[in-house]
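Entry 14: structure prediction run for Putative apoptotic protease-activating factor 1. Input pasted below.
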Amino acid sequence: MGIPLTEKARILLLSNKERLSRDFMAEHIVSYLVQMSAITPADMSDILDEKTERLKSAALLDMVIKKGQGAYNALYSAFKEQYSWLAPILHDGVTRDGYDSDDDQGYSTSEIQTILSKGGVPPRPRVYVDRPQLIQMIRHSLRKLKDNPGFVVVHGMGGVGKSILAAEALRDSTVLKVGKVDKGELLVKAQNLCARLDQNQSRNPPRNLEEARDRLRAILHEQYPCCLLIYDDVWSPKVLQGIDVQARILITTRDKSVTDSVAGPVYDVPLGDGGFSEAQSLRFLASWSKQEVKSLPPAAKAIAQESKGSPLILSIIGGLLSDSPHRWEFYAEKLKARNYSRLRKASTYEYRSVDEAIGTSVDELSEPLQEMYKDLAVFNPGVKIPGKVLSIYWNMPVEDVEEEIIPLVNKSLLRQEWLDSLDCMVYTIHDLLMDFLKHLVPDQKKLHTKFARRFAEHCGNKFETLEDDSYIHWHIAMHAAEGEAYDILQPVLCGWNWIVRKTEVTGPSSLLNDLINYTPLLEDGDKRMANQIKSFISVNAHLLIQRPPPDMIQLALNSEEKSPLYQMALNLIKQSKCGTYLKWVNRDNQPNSLMLASQVHDGIAHCAEFSPDGGSIVSCGEDGTVQIRDSSSAQIEKTFSGHEDDVSWCCFSPEGDLVMSCSIIGEVIIWESLTGEVVKSVPTGSSDMVVMCQFSHDSQSFGFCSLSGNIGVGDLSTFEVATHQVCNAGVSSMSFSPDDAKIIASAYDVTARVIMTHSGQEMVSYTNHKYHLVWCDFFPCGNRVASADAAEVHIWDPESGKREHMVSVKGAYILRCAISNNGKLVAGALSDCTVWLWECNTFTAVAVHHGHTSWIYSVAFDPSDERLVTAADDGTVMVWKAVTDSPANLHAA
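Run finished. Output tokens:
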């Protein structure tokens, strides 16, 4: 067989077969078709063997369909010669390689619009954003049907835009809107479809579903053999049982199980949540508000993020904004508060609100299944829920859990995936669905209590024996606290065996997070123990991540002898039947100023700084990453990966919404702190190491300095960079003045310079240092600056260059310094792994901190000046009390 018939040619032949077979005689044209090699002599013999002229003509048409497009083109040419009045019937199906046809193959735009209108395919909504990947998924599955009966099932959660995507994937079909219908309503829809499609208008409507199904099957087979039938918004398998007409059918549904009982191949197109990306969301909002994306107010981004890309939410918000164009902030706040019920607006979607769209799916569940679904409100958004956890929660075997939960998965209320490491299914709930559940079950305390007690019963209160299921070790404390099950909370915060096991499974950060959040809920005696454990874990966190981990009892013997933790360690040793422990003597019993130590980078940690609110720490290192961690627990909040080599410095913007970092190969990248998305990769014009980067105090500019001797100053709105050549040697640090008009720079040529920020003009040159400079900065008042070389810290006037104070360091080198936010203290990181603090007026040492075991590359104060953060050569970041009341803290001063 040659080239197959085009869809258009096939439709023309089949739909006109009866008429054509009456109006021509096969004997008149078969010889011509043989001459054109369209059919063979044997084919001609078979055709002419038919008993009647009509059967011969019908056999010829069947043969042309079988032979393909070349035979069709030859038949058209034969008709033009001998049956000129029939040729126009076939004209539109002739391809470019045919005979005498000058028209393009395919339909014109007007023809397509006519077909769309006749086929009932919904027009595009008023505001439309293309989602080509999802549309291509639908088209790919449709191609798999070819000419055979079968189903393509487009399924996803409510409000994802299934109907719109299906309509975009094809626009030459008859759409039957199904929805939730009973048997009588379904019969009416089937009767209407028969009436629309049947060319024999004399027949009476079918009297029941069985007759309607048979009628439709015959109509589609005889009159529309190449059509695609679309059943939009199918809710029940009974619908398809009633109108399964053995045709090519596309279905949109929330429940992919609707095709479980049909015959023929079924191809799934899972859309899942199918939401817009942030860029698509902003384009969508821009179209609704009739403006360009770049002109959208800042609240537009918040709406895009809080909507989770839901087409339904964005459509509702867009409609509301078209009525009230000045309410961007108002609707953003409603979304942040998850107040979906107040966001109501007629849109291109069937539902006027998010609650209505999701609630409709939940209402379709059986009562027992609804209760199971409500039980899931106990979990936090975004977490993966292992089937093994649900097995204990619901007190049923894992296999039964997986069986019971299938309807929730099928109805797009839950997503599942198999996890080999756990040997069970893992489930997730879309954020919008979880928000709906939280509102549906306002009293979640009972659920948390039930959850915590089920696990306590399961392990007999020996929580350390619980299996690592990738969930319970991370979250049992939260469930006990939320359920006010304090008898369970106490052992999971203070029980030694549980602490050891949890630290092994989750690492110290998760345990610290639990202790910080839930210790206040304990009774006073337990609070003291929990606080002791928190301090112990904080100080030893960098050791506890080692594999194999150190003996925690031995570490606990380093605690104060009168502390509950020390006494508990002694009791555990007495209970132990094996092992050797060392009891330290002549050790310092003074409280340690170290608050937190954590191994955060593989290799060197080059820099660490606090966020503007002090709640987070940003750090960077030799491993090429930038990380944001909780400043109390060191729990990871965000990791930025984008640099191609060591990251040398990082910092927050004054508002905390941006992070900037630079690398040893000349990269400067500005990131969004919440999402980790790159805002701009700034061209520096050099591959030399960028040593430091800083934001201006007014958040209008940014700066960076490099070993090439340059300082770059950029505009945060345009990202245009002006480069100032400061010296021929490398620049080791830079800082903006409090009013951002000037920059101070320290260089390896033993000189500190004050230059104008935008012009680069040098105002003052300070040359009183003996060695190359490692640091410089303005005091908050702006009329004093400090600079440091390897041996001395100088304080001087930035207008005159006159020195006011100087302090020398002996026995070690100064590596980096920092000025407190109130201007009263200077901190210095020294090569002997200590951190010194000096009072600025007299330059008296007020504290010395010991704890690092390698060189310290950065030191910074928190906004309150109560804490310091340091980053060191061994990859650790440590947080300290800036100044303690203990005079023993100065034993090395």
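Notes: The chain is about 35% helix and 25% strand. Will compare against the previous run tomorrow.
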